[in-house]
Amino acid sequence: MSAEPRPDTELAGLPAWLYPLGFWVGVVLLALGLLVPSAVWVGVVWVAAVPVLAALWVALSGWRTDRRLSVAALLALAGLGLVVVVRQLL
Questions:
Q1: Taking the CA of residue 86 as centre, how many other CA atoms within 13 Å lie in the half-sphere pointing to its CB?
Q2: Which of 58, 35, 59, 31 has its CA nearest to residue 46?
Q3: Rounded mean pLDDT of 24-30?
Q4: Terminus-to-terminus CA distance in the chain, angstroms?
Q5: Residue 3 pLDDT > 80, yes or no?
Q6: What is the DSSP string of 31-75?
Q7: How confident is the model at residue 4 (pLDDT cuts 50, 70, 90)?
Q8: Helix (H, G, I), strand (E, B), or coil: what is residue 14?
Q9: Percent of the chain with pLDDT over 70
Q10: Residue 58 phi, psi (nearest 5)
């Protein structure tokens, strides 16, 4: 008996469960911010951090299997860092 191949559910090196999990954690944190308005910044920072964490995941987990994708993720992070630095200069 041969085992059936597992379906490929990953998109661009990102597991199918990771991004939705980050989204729903952000929704919960923003909802808690309604109850504790002084802590709403935690939800906002989390929502902004989810794409950064996803790019880090892709860059680190796929380095051995798809180096071009990892380099693209690192370039995206470098571009984001450049935006932050230039924004501080303005």
A1: 6
A2: 31
A3: 94
A4: 65
A5: no
A6: HHHHHSGGGHHHHHHHHHHHHHHHHHHHHHHTTTT-HHHHHHHHH
A7: low
A8: strand
A9: 87
A10: -65, -45
50, 29 contact by CB (below 8 A): no
C-alpha 17/C-alpha 2 separation (Å) is 27
Instruction: Give φ, ψ of 79 to 5 degrees.
Output: -65, -40
Count of residues for the chain?
A: 90
From the CB of residue 21, how many other CB atoms can be counted at a distance below 10 Å? 12
Residue 78 has pLDDT above 90, yes or no: yes
Residue 29 amino acid letter: L
Looking at every residue in the chain, the average pLDDT score rounds to 86
Per residue in 33-76, pLDDT tens? 999 999 999 999 999 998 898 889 889 988 888 889 899 999 99
Note the pLDDT of residue 66. Answer: 85
Which amino acid is present at 58?
A: V
